[in-house]
Amino acid sequence: MESSLPISDRIWFTSFSESPIGMAITDLQTGLYVEANEVYCQWLGRKREEVIGKTTVDLGIYSNLSDRDVILSKLKTDGFVLNFEVPLVTKTGETVTVLFSGKIVEGGKYLLSAGQNITALKEKENLANALQKELKISKELFESVFRLNPAAVSLSNAETGRYDDVNEAYCRLIGFSREEIIGRTSHDLNIWITKLDRARLMAEVQKKGWSTGMEASIRMKSGEIRHVVSGNTLLNHDGRITLLAILIDITEAKQNKEALEFAVKERTKELNRILEDLQKTQDQLILSEKMATLGQLVASVAHEINNPLAAISAFSEQLQNRLTGFGERLLEIRQCMGKYSDSDADEIIRWITELFQVKPKTHNFAETRKIKKNLESLFHSTGIDTAYDLADRIVDLGVSDYILENTNFVLKLKNTPILSIILNELHALRSIESIRLAVERTSKIVYSLKNYGRMDRGSVKIPTNVVETIETVLTLYQNKMKSGIECIRLYNANPVVSGYPDELIQIWTNLIYNALQAMQFKGKLTVQVEETNTDVEVSIKDNGPGIPTPIQKRIFEPFYTTKEKGEGTGLGLGIVKQSVEERHKGQIRFYSEPGQTVFIVSIPKL
């Protein structure tokens, strides 16, 4: 829109468009802008075309319409407005603050407006005011914190060490009045027990600019010693470097700490004594449980030992009786062998030597009957009268196969009692072998009993063969199992673990005996040993009735038992769990359902 000013009036606005300040001309009658320079339009965020021909109301440039009313009022009364701050709203909604001046020109026809954008200055002024306010608040806050702080606080010259100010708590701590402290140094007041304390403090502060948590001892005016912990920092105060020191009196806390440490030591000693007593009690309980189980084994073990001892006694008596007739047998053998040539005698002696080296062989019932008939037929065919008796003795001695394979010797012996003499001597050999087996059996039982009876809760683990500890237990229970228990050994590994042998034996004893009792000593017991990458797993399974579901959560509880009074203490599985998990750092778990229960023990490999 072109300006509607007459040429004669434009002399007022010769340099209007080039003005470095914002300028505009408004028709007072209509309120419409008739001219506005570039600076003025930039304030409003609009182009000149958007301003000319519009009113301030049309453009909505006033943040507060009351400002427009104030301007119009001053123009009406004074004819001008000078340096009036007014916030204007731009096209984008931002606010700019303008220092506005205006004057009525051309005989009251136009309003010439001029101004300067002081938004940045205003922001700086607001910021300065805010900082000044914050500084005032900070200063008041510091003063309040300094004066009211319950800790002892001081300000001193970092170079000279002279006190600039102290709070009341500081005065109470060292026992001097504020007047006695200000202007003097800590050395003047002789508050440090040693100069090293202050020197150490200052060295750390100068190195880092601060220090905290440093303990020291100070002397009060009365001579009393107090213990403090300090926090210190360097700051610029009134134009010079000042040391801010905060001291917290820890005298009572230190004394209480020392008293508490003494009490803790005494309490620890008492707890150690109690722990030792508990350990002894626990060992006694474990031993009681072990001895209770051992008591259950006594009758069975005694029977197991009596059987081989009776065999040893009987066979020994037979050998003794036989040895008393040794001279007569020699004479009989001499008479028999004198009937043969030297070559036949040598051949018979070789045959007898081989016969005595034959490993005894047993046969089933059907095979035995057939072999006896063959032997009887052989003896009858050679004219030996005692065919049935000889056949029976040969089968019992387990050498029937050798006799039937070497029938030519039978023919040579048919007219002499030499065959009967040989079988008698062979029977004596079998008696000696039976004595050896009985001794081995008894030795194994005694060894197992000795292992089981040992009570040694050692503090050092040793390499232990797992299968050997299981076999020790199975040996002790063999007599109880042989009448109704089918024991299946599935040793898929023969591992060695780092453990306590006596405790492992007790673990297997509890689990195996519980399984036997659950089956009432009639059923199938399966003991399986497996080896994984990290663990050795032993599972003990029975085909008993299973553990009732309500009981399963409690079976490891100490003193909990479902057995009849006098049959169990309820400690067995609790001891097992403790030994597996705490002593051997392993794990025990179980699964149970009607007809099957299996306990699985996992122990880390060596």
SSE layout and pairings?
Elements (H helix, E strand, L loop, with lengths): L21 E6 L5 E4 L1 H7 L3 H4 L4 H4 L5 H14 L1 E10 L5 E11 L4 E8 L1 H30 L3 E6 L5 E4 L1 H7 L3 H4 L4 H4 L5 H14 L1 E10 L5 E13 L2 E10 L1 H74 L1 H12 L4 H16 L7 H18 L4 H11 L2 H6 L1 H6 L5 H36 L8 E4 H11 L1 H4 L3 E7 L4 E4 L1 H18 L4 E9 L3 E8 L6 H4 L19 H12 L3 E7 L2 E9 L2
Parallel strand pairs: 12-14
Antiparallel strand pairs: 1-2, 1-5, 3-4, 4-5, 6-7, 6-10, 8-9, 9-10, 11-13, 14-15, 15-17, 16-17
Pfam families: HATPase_c (PF02518), HisKA (PF00512), PAS_4 (PF08448), PAS_9 (PF13426)
EC number: 2.7.13.3
Catalytic activity: ATP + protein L-histidine = ADP + protein N-phospho-L-histidine
Q: Write the CATH architecture name of the largest domain.
A: 2-Layer Sandwich
Number of helices: 22
**How many structurally independent domains?**
4
- The main sheet orders its strands as 2-1-5-4-3
Keywords: Coiled coil, Kinase, Phosphoprotein, Transferase
Coiled coil: 250-284
Domain Histidine kinase: 300-606
EC number: 2.7.13.3
Task: Pick out its properties.
alpha+beta; five-stranded antiparallel β-sheet; Beta-Lactamase; disordered N terminus; 4 domains; elongated; 606 residues; single chain
Task: Provide an overview of this structure.
By secondary structure, this protein is of the alpha+beta class. The protein has four domains: 7-123, PAS domain (Beta-Lactamase); 144-253, 2-Layer Sandwich (Beta-Lactamase), CATH 3.30.450; 317-441, no CATH class; 456-604, Histidine kinase-like ATPase, C-terminal domain (Heat Shock Protein 90, 2-Layer Sandwich), CATH 3.30.565. It has 22 helices and 17 strands. The chain has a five-stranded antiparallel β-sheet, sandwiched between helices. Helix 13 (365-382) packs across helix 14 and helix 18 (466-476) packs across helix 20. The longest helix is centred in the middle third of the chain and has 74 residues, at 251-324. Mean pLDDT is 80; it is low at 1-14.
